[in-house]
Write a structure and sequence with these properties.
The protein contains 3 helices and 11 strands; from the N terminus they run αβββαβαβββββββ. By secondary structure, the chain is an alpha+beta fold. InterPro entries: C-type_lectin-like, C-type_lectin-like/link_sf, C-type_lectin/snaclec_domain, C-type_lectin_CS, CTDL_fold.
């Protein structure tokens, strides 16, 4: 990584840290900007500095979150809609992978088998080194794609909403 990449990575981290520190309060059952809520989770769409899949997961962890794990068609449609609103041509990493066992897709943070899927036509195609899951924008309308884990993409982080009634901090 060269100096300019390091600088931009630090700048992005600082911006997200400032935003989540300043605006990261969860009050009752709502996520505050820039997080968006779906049911009992808060999501942030990180678009400022693309990362490979592993670094995207690490970035989410620094926010007290994980790469998004999609459990239903409703949740998937929610994320697809927001991804389209942010960048219709974009691609977003989420937390699915088959790097541990080729062809067996799991959510990396929970190690649970992926039950609900929304693969695009011909996907997953099992191409060499395509072991990470992304929402594939543009002509693919954010259906799922197995992609090279080292490609640099935007990503979606997910954090559970604290429904215990007392405010907590995200980030």
């Amino acid at each position: 990584m060269n100096w300019s990449q390091s600088f931009f990575q630090l700048a992005l981290w600082a911006c997200v840290t400032i935003v989540t520190t300043s605006y990261g309060q969860v009050v009752g059952d709502q996520c505050s900007s820039p997080w968006v809520q779906y049911r009992d989770s808060c999501y942030i769409f990180a678009t400022g500095y693309p990362e490979d899949w592993t670094e995207a997961g690490s970035f989410c962890s620094r926010l007290g979150a994980k790469l998004a794990e999609i459990g239903s068609a409703d949740e998937n449609n929610f994320l697809r809609l927001h991804a389209f609103e942010i960048n219709p041509e974009g691609h977003f990493w989420v937390g699915g992978t088959d790097v541990l066992v080729d062809g067996q897709w799991i959510w990396i943070s929970s190690q649970e088998k992926i039950e609900y899927t929304d693969w695009g036509p011909g996907e997953p195609n099992g191409a060499i080194r395509e072991g990470c899951l992304m929402l594939n924008g543009g002509k693919y309308h954010f259906h799922w794609n197995d992609a090279n884990c080292h490609s640099l993409q935007s990503f979606i982080c997910e954090k559970q909403l604290d429904l215990g009634g007392s405010p907590s901090v995200i980030g």
